[in-house]
Design a protein that fits this description.
mainly alpha, 13 helices, about 0% strand, binds fe (ii) ion
C-alpha cells in the first residue's frame, strides 16, 4: 500500500508539473550516486530514495504561477514556497506513507549551519535529509533555470566543497570526494547514456526493491 501511494503521488506530481517531477527523478538518481559512496543499510537507502522522489511533493499545494514564475518572487510568494516541506509532510501523512519518510520531506531544506527553513543544525538534521539536500542542490545547479545558468560539473564540485560546514554536512561531502574515480560521471544527466539507469530508478519507486541496483552492479 505504501508503494502504491508513492506511485500515486508521483503520478499526481507528473500531471501537475512535469519539471518538478523530472527534478525529483534526478534528485533520486543523485541521492543514489551519493549513497553508493557510503556504507548504508539497504532499508535506509530505500527510504532515502523514496524521500528523494517525494521531497518536493508539497509543491502540489502551491499554485503553478508561483512555482514557474520566471522573475523574482515577492515576499509573500517566497513565504509560500518555503511552506512546501510542511505541505509535503501533511500530504504524506494523508497518503499513509511510511513515517520514516516524514523527516526527509520536512527537513530537506535545512542547512548544516542552522540557517535553513526550520533552523535545525548539524546532526539534529535527519541524515537522509542531509543527503537529499546535497542531491537537490546538485540538481538545481546542473539545470538551466530562468534565474540561473547551468553550472559545469567542475563548478558544482567547487560549490559543494566551498559549502562544507555551511550549507552541507562536511563529513558527507568529504566522503563524496574521497574516491576520486568517476566523479565526473556521478552527477551526469545525460539522458541517452543514463536512460537505463533512470528506468531502473523509476522501477525502484514502483517496486520498492532496491535490490535491482545491487544485483546489477549499482
Ligand atoms: Fe524543496
Amino acid at each position: 500500500m505504501h508503494m502504491d501511494n508513492v506511485r500515486k503521488l508521483m503520478e499526481l506530481l507528473k500531471n501537475y508539473d512535469i519539471n518538478v517531477w523530472k527534478h525529483s527523478i534526478f534528485v533520486m538518481k543523485f541521492s543514489f550516486e551519493i549513497m553508493k559512496k557510503l556504507d548504508l543499510h539497504k532499508k535506509d537507502v530505500t527510504n532515502i530514495l523514496i524521500g528523494s522522489l517525494l521531497h518536493d511533493i508539497g509543491k502540489l499545494k502551491i499554485c503553478k504561477e508561483i512555482i514557474n514564475k520566471p522573475g523574482k518572487l515577492d515576499i509573500d510568494e517566497w513565504d509560500e514556497i518555503k511552506r512546501h516541506p510542511t505541505y509535503g509532510g501533511s500530504i504524506i501523512n494523508q497518503y499513509e506513507i511510511n513515517s520514516e519518510i516524514l523527516p526527509l520531506i520536512l527537513y530537506h531544506h535545512e542547512r548544516w549551519d542552522g540557517k535553513g527553513y526550520y533552523g535545525l543544525a548539524g546532526k539534529h538534521i535527519h541524515f537522509g535529509a542531509r543527503v537529499i539536500a546535497i542531491a537537490d542542490s546538485v540538481e538545481a545547479m546542473s539545470s538551466q533555470r530562468p534565474y540561473q545558468n547551468m553550472k559545469k560539473t567542475k563548478e558544482i564540485f567547487m560549490e559543494l566543497l566551498n559549502s562544507r560546514g555551511s550549507q552541507f554536512d562536511p563529513d558527507l561531502i568529504n566522503q563524496l570526494f574521497k574516491i576520486e574515480s568517476n566523479n565526473q560521471l556521478i552527477f551526469s544527466k545525460n539522458l541517452v547514456k543514463e536512460q537505463g539507469i533512470l528506468e531502473k530508478l523509476i522501477s525502484v519507486s514502483r517496486n520498492f526493491n532496491s535490490n535491482i541496483f545491487y544485483s546489477e552492479g549499482y
